[in-house]
Write a structure and sequence with these properties.
Blueprint (H helix, E strand, L loop, with lengths): L1 E7 L6 E4 L3 E3 L4 E7 L4 E8 L2 H11 L5 H11 L15 E2 L14 E9 L1
Antiparallel strand pairs: 1-2, 1-7, 3-4, 4-5, 4-6
Bound molecules: zinc ion (2 copies).
Length: 117
Amino acid sequence: MGTLFQFRCPGCGYEAQVSGGLGWGILAVTHTVSCPTCTELSDMIVAEEPWEFSEWMERECVNRDDAVAKAAQARWMPEKIRCDLDHRHKASLWSHPGPCPRCGTTLAKGEMTMLWD
Ligand SMILES: [Zn+2]
Ligand SMILES: [Zn+2]
């Protein structure tokens, strides 16, 4: 099951509800991306075989820490990172703590807002 968090920028007030990095549920594996064209964060679907991903995570990883996320990226991330709002946009992977897509201030992580599956 995936978890979304509320992120808020203390600089400009920008808010987004994203997983804040790698996330996965029953239907898909996602990673948060930052699009400079939309100046928005969104969650890009990176794989639609989350069961394979889950098996891999259980096999390879004990903790879901930064090193795990990096290893997972190397193994699972597509070469082309695309904005989830418009797939023609080039985006870049975004993980908490990361910069605001509008003003560059580090976003604050807030409440867990929902679970998805
Ligand atoms: Zn901002
Ligand atoms: Zn975009």
